């Protein structure tokens, strides 16, 4: 059932023309990502919001980071430079052809038979030079950490986009002594509470603690979908916050995905599909592994590119990737792929496959739709909300249905894929300008507390 506007507590007694409030952005998690070769979905959201808030005028911005002596204020300009160093390490603005993982993935897609084994496990190792630059940036930044939180001006907004360390009382305790500060949290989902079997056992303890702190201290929350808003409303009410303000702001795709990209010449004539996400149970990679085991029995089957790092509770998938010789020539594991590399792969793919068992949003789906790539997704609430009529929807447990869909979409003249491309032309997603304006307006309307 669609969420009516009056079902989520909103703030409507101000206008968008009100001056922007100073936002102190928590950069703690983001500055720890220098060792990761590529961003995941949470990283993309964190970085986009950090840039938005830290590029403001001096009187409108601030930064908070965890230090050895707890959370402290940091110089926002230096925080931004450090974050940009991490972005450079991720090669967000590079050409796909400069990405060794992309080149290795293409080589695997083009390889025939046993030759595919040579490079079918393309994974990006951290570059010593890039890591050295990031460590140096952190070293230069470190002397500027340490201003106590009591020096914050009255009435600022504290924004945390990842809930990193929010389960720790010592990290959030300062909020109790500063009731004038308006804490706002981005809530990706409540799945570790609702489906703990998909996560490390520790998450079943940590996420409830995070969310209880959100309800205790939060002045409001930002979510990406109405389905998460409904679940958050219920959790907040169960924890005594029946009027908890929630801003629903669907995530936009990064601009690179909306740029027109012709099918790359190096991928011409290749039949392949892409799945994008950390290899962990909720993403349901095992269904696709079983589909490709069946396809491997056929003459000239399409290939599958798995974009994402190895996560947790993934032994069946990893065992198949490393030990199934019949499967190996047909599946490419592209860990550490850059964003430009992903965009280029999507340009030539038959479809993005997303058989997730649960999602709070689904950024790869939005990215593929923005890129003009057909998508085949699980028939779950979040995907219905963001995809509308554009995707092909399948039960995430219907292995034979997914097998048939892959066969249909891989056909050279595929009526099913052509129909998906026609539907895709009617799809439109959120734009970055509107996304940030929605959040800024929400923050401006938050009541100022003494």
From TrEMBL:
<dbReference type="Pfam" id="PF00534">
    <property type="entry name" value="Glycos_transf_1"/>
</dbReference>
<feature type="domain" description="Glycosyl transferase family 1">
    <location>
        <begin position="271"/>
        <end position="386"/>
    </location>
</feature>
<protein>
    <submittedName>
        <fullName>Glycosyltransferase family 1 protein</fullName>
    </submittedName>
</protein>
<dbReference type="InterPro" id="IPR001296">
    <property type="entry name" value="Glyco_trans_1"/>
</dbReference>
<keyword id="KW-0808">Transferase</keyword>
